[in-house]
## 1
Amino acid sequence: MKQFYKNVLLYILLTFSTLAVKAQALEDVANSLRSGNVTTIAKYFDNTVAITVSNNQSIYSKAQAEMVLKDFFSKNQVKEFTVRQAGSSGESSKYAVGTLQTSNGNFQIYLVMKQKEDSYLLREIRFEKQEK
């Protein structure tokens, strides 16, 4: 009977740790946006990433997407990032919408992460310049 309880406890711990890791991915990307840390954001890239900057959308490989974001952040120094809304669509995708304040104005940010095996990967990021 002791073995049964040990197995149940182990299962519960593994389930919660897996859920925490999955929830952490979106939070890590949001925190990286706050500091303009492209290296950390790139850890969550899927094989291809759709990036839109001011209505200019393309699909990039991981390496290309990292260069695009480095270029964006070199031209737009981050002041603050605030998540306005976050949630999930079923169990296979997560999203967040926020405001990125930069040296060149504010951008509305849209993030879409999809589950791939046991982790969430960034599939799409949009930067839409907000009018004053």
Note: Residues 2-35 form the longest helix (34 residues).
## 2
Amino acid sequence: MKTGINHLFIPGPTNVPDDVRMAMNVPMQDQRGPEFGAFTLGILADMKRIFRTTKGQVMLFPGSGTGAWEAAITNTLNPGDRVLMARHGQFSTLWADMATRLGLQVDVIDVAWGAGTPVAEFARRLAADRKGAIKAVFVTHNETATGVTSDVAAVRRVMDDAFHDALLFVDGVSSVGSIDFRMDDWGVDLAVTGSQKGLMCPAGLGILAVSEKAVEAARTATMRRAYFEFSDMLATARTGYFPYTPPTQILQGLRRALDRITAEGFENVLARHARLAEGVRRAISAWGLMTCAEHPTLASNTVTAIRTPEGVDAREVIRIGYERYNTSFGSGLARLSGKVFRIGHLGDLNEAMCLTALSVAEMALAEAGADIEFGSGVSAAQGWYAQGRAGRARLQLAAE
């Protein structure tokens, strides 16, 4: 029989803080009642700040990030439209598959799993598309399967340099709320996230932010949709009431999670994720292992995919972590199965939790056959975290 808590270090669903769970432990409420509209409007306003948009509208779809993907596509594009995207991980692959199944003509650029969005190749294809046949460009901001963050701003620049009018779609499921994301500054037209990652809630909400340009495209788009209809959901942004039954308990949790982000300070939230991720990366380097990300500039601040040494099955590392140490690591997906395991470091997380993940990973790696010196990665991370704490303490004293 296992004792203690299960340590959850997958990149989503993430840990739900106690006060968020308690906020959801309320009686069912009347979603048509007089107070519900104002409650929802407050959530929408705060989500706009998370997306960093003043011009866009936020929609909350009961479902998942995948549902929000479908809503984005079906409301703004037409059957047979040509779109440009890259496959460099499991989730960018799934997005391309969805686009194909929905009847789009998908121009796919395949790059290594561990690379980012191929901005230079995007630039070449957009510049060559003088008749504007490409109607949308899709970017996976943070590829959760590989721990790679792509440069959305750079994609916007090459679109502008080519004077291209395509819509810019961004998958921000494992980045929004945890990694710097700037919808208005980057000219993003449709940005997707979910409730179960940096927003620290259970899965159940697909969250979509749309630009004025995307709303206008939805007026004439001819793809079939019903449940995901923008015009129905846009009414929510005005009144706070949903066109169908919303998951009221998750909304209560999201309200509390947004309050937590506000109390910490959004810039501090982003800095914390960067600090924790760097400690994990230093540990991996101390072990003598490599991340899946091909270059340090691509390294994600929300999840790290760790390549296991030759002859060490990453699935064994995950199994040992779970069965012997009551700890869940993320698995390697699709072609990365058995080759990587993932440590998710996003949402409600601190230094001590990351050190727990690293200490268990050391034991699991060693038992799976890796040549790991116990304490090497933990020590490297400790040095980084302690240095950061000391620096912040000095700044605090100087301020006082």
Note: The mean pLDDT is 95.
## 3
Amino acid sequence: MNESEKTKLSQSLKANMETVKTIYGSDSTLKMRSFSNLESDKIKCGIFYIEGLVNKESISKNIIRPIIQAEYSGEKDIPALLKDKVITSEHIRVEQDLTALIEAVNYGDTALFIDGFATAFLIDSKDWKQRQIEEPQSEMTVRGPKEGFTECIMVNLSLIRRRIITQDLKYEFSEIGTRTKTKICMCYIEGVANKNILGELKDRLSKINMDAVLDSGYIQECIKDAPMSIFKTVGSTEKPDIICGKLLEGRIAIVVDGSPEVITVPYLFIEAFQTGEDYYIPSVYGSINRFLRIASFFLTTMIPANYIALVTFHQEMIPTPLAISIAAASTGTPFPTIVEMALMLIVFEIIREAIVRMPSFMGQAISIVGVLVIGQATVEARFISAPIIIIVAFTAITGLMIGKIKSTSIILRMIFIILSGFLGFYGIIFGFIVTCIYLLQLKSFGVPFIHVDNSKGLHGVTDTIIRAPWWYLKLRPAFMAIDRKRNDFKTKKVRK
């Protein structure tokens, strides 16, 4: 018997039920029941489902009770009779393959066997327990929608569909994971999204061969350009409004069942400094906020290295009173400046990670202990100089402004610290040039990571380091949108 014959259903109800029992073994979540019609013994059926995934009341009301009480007048095509006139469930699918039947039942469907027929019905009866829609803790905003994605793919897709009410919004489903059979959905707006990028994304997804996909992070790592790069070239967010905004610009989103993080491609470097709230507040304030985030990125990565370079190699550039103060604070400390800086930054990252992993009621206590006790004790014990504590504190605060690029800033900061410790400002300049060259050659799905829009006038910079008023945002980005026209304001003001 070949593999295809093994997966075929039998015409015997008893044989099919015994096969299912054999497959599931001693699994106590498997629930099975056989029953027949009150008027005729010719209608004998059996169902099986997984407890905890289905609505038992719906199964009883829409499947079992109608079949038992149905009127039978001698029809020979019993499956058609049950499907068209008896079963009241909305979604019914006919299936003849046992493997597909088992996969659907494991996803929350109920399978119905009919004695004398080698076919089965798959009836939608899902009733999962899921998290309610709430604001994401990592992307909280003052103004704007508070909704966030959940772990249910259909709920997430509905949040997108509710905001973009157009027939051009397309959903393409597929499965990844030989064992988990994780459902994913590509979302894009037809006529806006670039077909070349869409084709490249489909090709990369088709090459993923894994036994399990439990979160969108699996896919994000597999499809990114330059997999070992410290810069991420695939975006992600938990906010439906942000995803909708990116879809309307021509990007493509990937929704993964079981993950609240939705992926977007392509992803540009400037997106790390943009937030959804920038578009809900006046453009002047949105632009200022972006400038602050960009400045914070350079400060959090460069300030420690610059301090080390000044103190170690270029003391003549420090004002005399400040140099005397730093020298006095460093007297008696056992380590060189670069070691002090590296140690304190590592200690801060340990404290930060501990606060994130600890229960919320303990986080505040740990932060107080880490900041006050450890910081003050190390200075008083002459283990670390006071200026180092100030520099580390300022570095940590500016790092909080750029949560999307936090990991990258940590690695860059350590690289610049090492370079400045050996070469001073020359090392920093060398590292900065190498980083810029690397960023200029990096791409995200064929789009330059640092993209320069060649649109006429100011359209190329209206939504990059600044957020221009809406009447200037007339065009979508040229690198990915087919239909570039976004709005057509005739004047700067809608009303006078």
Note: The first helix runs from residue 3 to 6.
